[in-house]
Write the structure tokens for this entry.
Amino acid sequence: MSDHRAQSAAAGATPVPRPSTDAAAPTSPPANRRRLAVILGCVLLLLGAGVSLPVIGLWRYANADHLGILDNPPVTDRAAQACATMAREVAAIPPAASGDTAGQVTVIRAQNQALEHVVTSMTDLGPELLNGDHPANQWIADWKTLIQLREDYADALAAGSEPTFEVPTVDGYPITHRMSESGVECPIPPEITALP
């Protein structure tokens, strides 16, 4: 009977909880290392992106065609050479005597030949190079405009008129401003715009 009571008591008794073998075991050192490696990899990836994206952006900016600036080396080199030659040629032309209209016309036309040197030297580069450097064609067009206005002035002077000369403006600036500040060292000699 005592055995039966013991069994009954055992049957009705609340079982003592035992540790489950299904419970997650503490994280093992290899799992910790993997987790750490993944976190470190993500951090390095973010740092790499943070450094490389600005570098890529700067590289793309440096190699882009910037509006208003001559920046392709073959174009800028040719423009700088043409401008230097033009400045030397203009400086070598002696001024006309005051009141000598025919002499003034001759000087203006001789200066125009020096300006033409810039145009022909640049157009010799060909359309592919010029079209690839955004302001190049406009820059050449400004030189042509200046030459034509000076030629018209010389014609009027030769015909006995008293012409006036004014450099055209774009967006409030004379075209000579953008001609001389387009990424190339090309100052316009003062005698080009200071006509008699």
